Amino acid sequence: MRSLAGSRSATSFAVEATFGTVGAMRIAGVRVGPPAVRLLAQILDDAGYEETARTLTEAIALAVVEPALTLADHEAILTALGDDCPTSLAKLRRELLDDQARRRRAGF
Fold first, then answer.
1. What pTM was estimated for this model as a whole?
2. Phi first, then psi: what are they for 33, rounded to 5°?
3. N or C: which end of the chain has fewer CB within 10 A?
4. Which residues pair with 32 in a beta bridge?
5. What per-residue confidence (pLDDT) applies to 22?
6. How is the chain split into domains, by residue range?
7. Which of 99, 96, 53 minimizes the C-alpha distance to 78?
8. What pLDDT digit, counting tens, does each position of 41-75 carry?
9. What number of CA atoms fall less than 13 Å from residue 15's CA on the CB side?
10. Confidence check: pLDDT of 98 > 90
11. Cα 10-38-22 angle, rounded to 5 deg
């Protein structure tokens, strides 16, 4: 386990400290494995989306299979993943992009 030294926030530390109590999660209908959820929470935290990272961290700690994420959380995930999306999160990013395109076409 890493210490809180350096630029690591309490949220990222909590992800590492509590991880392992949940199997795969469903985010935007996509099954995301435990290592990828941990990575996503860290990416979100590093990008300044602490609330979304905290939501995932709490879901991990509570063994929630499908965390309650808002459209704002989905947008945060898309922005944080950007064009350099890790392979383990590529399917999630594609689904979120598709969902975003559907909402825009529908005028939302």
1. 0.78
2. -70, 160
3. N
4. 25
5. 57
6. 10-105
7. 96
8. 999 999 999 999 999 999 988 999 999 999 999 99
9. 25
10. yes
11. 105
